[in-house]
Amino acid sequence: MKHLKSKISRTLVLYIVLFSSVVTLCLTSIHLYVDYKDGIETLHQRIDQIKLTNIDSIKQSLWTMDYSSVEIQLNGLTRITDIIYVELTDENNKIIAKSGEVNTEDTIRETIDLKQKYRNKETEIGKIKIIATKENLYQHLINTVVIILITQAIKTFLVSIFILLIFYSLVTRHIEKITGHAEKIKLNSKVKPLSLDREKNILLKNDEIERLAESINFMSESIYNTYTDLFNSQHTLTEREAKFSAMFDSITDAIVFVDHERRIIQTNTAFTKYFDYSLDEIKGKTTQILYAVPEEYNIQGKKRYNINANSRPNVYEINYRRKDGSIFPGETMGGAVRLPDESLLGFIGIIRDISYKKETEEENTRLQHQLQQSQKMEAIGQLTGGIAHDFNNMLASILGYSELLSGYLEKSSDPKPLKYIKNITNAGERAHDLVEQLLTFSRSAPGNPQAINLTELIHKVTTLIRPTMPSSIHLEIEADENIPSVMMDNTQMHQILMNLCINARDAMHGKGNLSINLTSVNIEKQICSSCKEKIEGEYIKLSVSDTGTGIEKDLLENIFDPFKSTKPFGEGSGMGLSIVHGILHKHKSHIVVQTETGKGSIFSLFIPPYLKNETSTTINKPKTTPVIDNKKSHHILIVDDEEAVVYFMQDLLEKHNYKTTITTSSLKAVEIITNNPNDFDLIITDQTMPDMTGTEMIQKIFKITPDIPIILCSGYNKQVGEKEALELGCKKYLSKPIKNDYLIKSVQEIMGTD
């Protein structure tokens, strides 16, 4: 079995066995096929023999109706080898006699018509069916296969053993010796020459094995001599190359070395990380493949990569392109590499990815801009909120006294004073509208948010604004189906869309296209044009676009500032987009402006979709208190730090037969109630007052007389609105300036008077 340890021997034996097996299988298959055909032919011959020897006697017995003889003959047929079933039927296919049984489906079947000549005419008297089985044939074939395979296996085994022994004697043992000798060959030492143990035979002289042994000896000598010559120089070179390679690849910046034609010769590991190119992929190619802008290749070539280039490195920034097409900014330092004789060897470039540096700078710039914008808007909001209270107090007096004066002058014979008063009232109301716009911009309260169907809102707004447009302006609405609702104040949302549509209409000067688009979007990265915050996630996008004059770039940054208008003087208040900014950001929404001078603008609103499980804020109304007796002479305490306001309210209420007491100090009001807790039926107070605010005063008064009705008024207060006033226990919350009729009506509702 030692001979089988040789891999070549095992392989040779395997091939012999495989080949012999294939040949055996093929020859056996042919032999079986021939035997099978012969067996089938034999079965058919047996049936033909039955036709010749037995059919006539069976036919005669059937003609004479000798059925016992028929049965005997049929039984005799089934005793014939391979005949397993015989059946005789009359001319109507009725079985007369049968013998044997069919217990297999693999058979040969044949039906023979029986005819008898009678009066010179052949008459069919019946049929005989003969069935022969193939089972004996199959068994014969199986036995044949077994015998063939066993004999062939023995033959193959004996032949393989013989060939193996011959091959081992002539080849294998010498190859093993040559292999053992080759394994002993060392680069740095000599070995004894190889000598084969072979019998002297003229047939084996100078054969392949002997020539192989001589070649091995020659190779061993050559290797030793070559190694001796190269060892010293190779050792030094390898050491230097290893040091250089380690230093070259340890540098974290990308390094590329090119020849005088800027073809890449060498790169370091960092270069592969930066550009995703291996050295094999780009070696021999020019550095043009690395530039984001191909033209830069020629520009830099003229500047830095020429025969006169200075060896002193110079630093510059340029954009590069990676293998996947992505672009990154690189800080590059490069220069010429010259030999000691000043001849140009090539150029070296050191590239540092400054993407993070650039992104950080851009992010810092954006955040600084956002902070400045936020601080500016906050300052404007504080300013508008601060002046709103004083404005409304002044307007309350102006409008209130104007209404009182109008009542006195209604029966005057001279219409001019009444006309003058009406003009004063109109001017005051316009001033009030402007103050409300300022408050809308600065107010933090979200109004009355509710789920709004924007598609319906768009159609309502366009129905209102369409008549104000000339027919030369084409209005187009595109809205996706199944757009979710948004949680907004309906009036404020109506105002936003009206402002944008009016601005678009005015920008087109009577001719163009105004488009309104509504769709659901998923924003990956966008910057709000007003607050400069990032916009990400799912939003409802409402866009209003026009083909008007567009907005100049130097005006674009300030279009959301109050009183900043792009329209000619006198054609706009400059509050439209400020209001849009204020409303949107109270509802966590954003706006993006795209504009091009002379081509038009697109204002896109991004509003969060309304989630069904969100609930809107509701105001808990105070419990109703019993109505005060109408017959009583009602006494009202009026508290406001503005003298004009308290005197106006006193005049108005006393005109309607109410008894009043006035004070401009909230501290004094508390003192009055403390000393006379049962003298007053109603208190009307301002919210913003020195020393003590209206809500603080109300809390103290409720501790003294908890059931007294109170009306809280305010020109503007960021912390206190209708919701807070009603939760505090006030009966009413009124915003200044208050219409005279509405003030009287509110008092009457509370006091139960007419």
From TrEMBL:
Residues 314-366 form the PAC domain. PROSITE patterns: HIS_KIN, PAC, PAS, RESPONSE_REGULATORY. The modification 4-aspartylphosphate is found at residue 686. Residues 635-751 form the Response regulatory domain. It is an enzyme of class 2 (transferase). Its EC number is 2.7.13.3. GO terms for molecular function: ATP binding; phosphorelay sensor kinase activity. It comes from the Bacteria. The chain crosses the membrane at residues 12-34. InterPro entries: CheY-like_superfamily, HATPase_C_sf, HATPase_dom, His_kinase_dom, HisK_dim/P_dom, HisK_dim/P_sf, PAC, PAS. GO terms for biological process: regulation of DNA-templated transcription. The keyword Transmembrane helix applies. The keyword Kinase applies. Keywords: ATP-binding, Kinase, Membrane, Nucleotide-binding, Phosphoprotein, Transferase, Transmembrane, Transmembrane helix, Two-component regulatory system. Residues 240-296 form the PAS domain. Residues 386-611 form the Histidine kinase domain. It catalyses: ATP + protein L-histidine = ADP + protein N-phospho-L-histidine. This is histidine kinase. The lineage of its organism: Bacteria, Pseudomonadati, Pseudomonadota, Gammaproteobacteria, sulfur-oxidizing symbionts.
